Amino acid sequence: MIAATASASPAVKRGVAIAFAALVIGGWAAASMRLPAYVMPSPADVGTALLGFATDARRLGHLVATLRNVAAAIGLSFVLGALLALVAHYARWSDPAIHRRLSPFLNAFSGIGWTLLAVIWFGVSMTTVVFSISAVLLPFALVNLREGLAALDRELGEMGASFTRRRLPVFAMIVLPALAPFAIATLRIMFGVSWKVTLTAELFGGNEGLGYLINLARQEFDTATIFAVILLIVAAVYGADRWLLGPLQRLVARRTGTVA
User: Fold this and answer.
1) Alpha helices of the chain — where are they, by DSSP H?
2) Tell me, what DSSP letter sits at residue 207?
3) Rounded CA gap, 194 and 75, in Å?
4) What is the DSSP letter of 241?
């Protein structure tokens, strides 16, 4: 059965995907007719709530706030993770502290725990949300870029050093291009994970954003808005991964000669 599906034509695969989506939406519509709206809103109600994000300035503001929080957290955690990975790579004495102590601690600490601590430290604010997301994303950047640095071709580095004694040109022309595939893959992972953390951080520690909007909708039993937010997040992650991050990773892989 698996082999038959793998060998099917693109048209057949698209047909199966469309049929599955139609089946899910049909089941959803049927369930909404039998259950109260606050339990299972209809597809039409959720569509109206989705339209509200384009026509309601307040909801649009919450969407923009979440996008801002995600972008800020990804940028902050990626830069900090890259700096820590580079320090551990070039200053070998710091490797045990960074990779054997800090990295396992960050991997093990709960995202909700970071959020609750941030609320105590920074109050209910954007700083709390960005800090919480960044703390969860940091180990992804640290671990992935560490692997990229470990995979560097030493002979290529020695060849570069034979042309110049300055480390900056060697780093810019050899190390950075070699790290590019790992960097793009890291950003791709961090983007997907960030959305899983953002709602929780905004729910407990934010005063704006989609998580905060979900909290308001929960209090008002506005389940249609909750469904709309979920669909927005799914569409954002899927669209960015398929049409932006995925093609970018394949482009970098082709240019660097690595496997996409």
Assistant:
1) 2-6, 10-34, 43-55, 57-90, 95, 103-108, 111-122, 126-150, 154-163, 167-170, 176-205, 210-219, 223-240, 246-256
2) S
3) 11
4) I
Residues ≥6 apart with Cβ < 8 Å to 63 = 53, 210, 232
Classify burial at 230, counting beta carbons within 10 Å of its beta carbon; exposed 0-12, middle 13-18, buried 19 or more: middle
Count Cα atoms within 13 angstroms, Cβ side, for 148. Answer: 24
DSSP track, 76-130: HHHHHHHHHHHHHHHSGGGHIIIIIIIHHHHHHS-HHHHHHHHHHHH-SSHHHHH
Distance in angstroms (rounded) separating the CA atoms of residues 168 and 138: 25
Q: Please report where in the chains the tokens 């649009």 appear, as a residue.
A: 60
Q: Are 124 and 67 in contact (CB under 8 A)?
A: no
1 pLDDT band (50/70/90 cuts)? Answer: very low
Q: Quick one: tokens of 1? A: 């059965």
Instruction: Work out the angle at residue 172's Cα, subtended by the Cα atoms of residues 166 and 177, and round it to the nearest 5 degrees.
Output: 140
pTM for this model (two decimals): 0.86
Helix axes 43-55, 223-240, angle to 10 degrees: 70
Taking the alpha carbons at both ends of the chain, their separation in whole angstroms is 27
116 class by beta-carbon count within 10 Å (0-12 exposed, 13-18 middle, 19+ buried): middle
Res. 157: pLDDT tops 80: no
CA 243, distance to chain mean position in Å, is 15
| Integer angstrom CA distances of residue 205 from 109, 180, 202, 208, 221 | 17, 34, 5, 9, 21
Residue 191 has pLDDT above 70, yes or no: yes
Whole-number Å distance between alpha carbons of 259 and 252: 10
